[in-house]
Design goal:
By secondary structure, this protein is of the alpha/beta class. The chain has helices spanning 17-23, 41-54, 71-83, 97-105, 124-134, 147-155, 157-164, 180-192, 208-214, 250-264, 270-286, 310-314, 322-325, 330-333, and strands at residues 13-15, 26-30, 63-67, 87-92, 109-113, 138-140, 171-174, 197-203, 244-248, 291-295. The protein starts with 12 loop residues before the first strand and ends with a helix. Residues 6-298 form the Tryptophan synthase beta chain-like PALP domain.
Length: 334
Amino acid sequence: MTRIIDLIGNTPLLRLDGPSQATGCEILGKAEFLNPGGSVKDRTALALVRDAQERGLLKPGGTIVEGTAGNTGIGLALVGGALGFPVTIVMPRTQSPAKKDALLAAGARVIEVDPAPYTSEHHFIHISRRLAEQTPGAFWANQFDNPANKAFHAATTGVEIWEQTGGRIDGFVASAGTGGSLAGIAQALRARKPAVTIALADPAGGALYSYYTTGELKPEGSSITEGIGVGRITGQLDGLSVERAYRIEDGEFLPILFDLVEREGLSLGGSAGVNIAGAMRLARELGPGKTIVTLLCDAGSRYANRLYNADYLRARNLPVPPWVESGAPLSAAV
């Protein structure tokens, strides 16, 4: 008998026709939005909970507590519900309403807090840790520094990519939220093909591009993306090296997302847009005929009020979806 958590992982690789044709390479996206909770973070959630159970950190009657920008919380709510654990999520109130709604619909208790820098005791991660410490029987998932995150991606996501490409992979590109998927997949691929090129795609506002190019954690600019663009070296990223690093501006990835909707019927979130833009940059550097893989982290529906909202985008002088820009007023169409 199949349970909902048995559907996590083993997602397909999709050929992205537009990016592939534009670069002369095969650009493939791992369709992580097809996980039951709708994102790559379902894997992280399952990894953290299973590891905690095995180590006796989460016992029957316990509560799962985590600080998250949204998707990991949705995954934890799904996994917790399937295994009988209540879930409490602490998240910044600046995240998209659709994520909060998805958390509530999945059965999570949601505590919203004002945004604060990681150095502040009021940062959502620190608040979640203190809440777990004060709750009897609680397990703090600690996705940013818990080694189970990276290990699970090394054992599953990275192996799946290797097998699905038949080992014919020249590069892997991803952005980093916790860094677990990037570091874990890099570990799995390098173990099988040391010459594979690993690249970071960092949104404006993130500090990792600066770190991997200058050695200094220095954020620059800002982005409308959510959940990526980490400002520190997390436990997942500790020891990771990359061959390439790219800073991806909003104005670069948005047209790529819009084109995928119009021409390939594929609506994706901002992190996927950053990833694909990074994959296209790497493809052009490596040259025609290469195979580049990236992650399609989640779907665009969770960000419709931002990524696909003309008023929101115009207010920030960003590109607007062509089908919105060219749409005639209703009065002219009837």
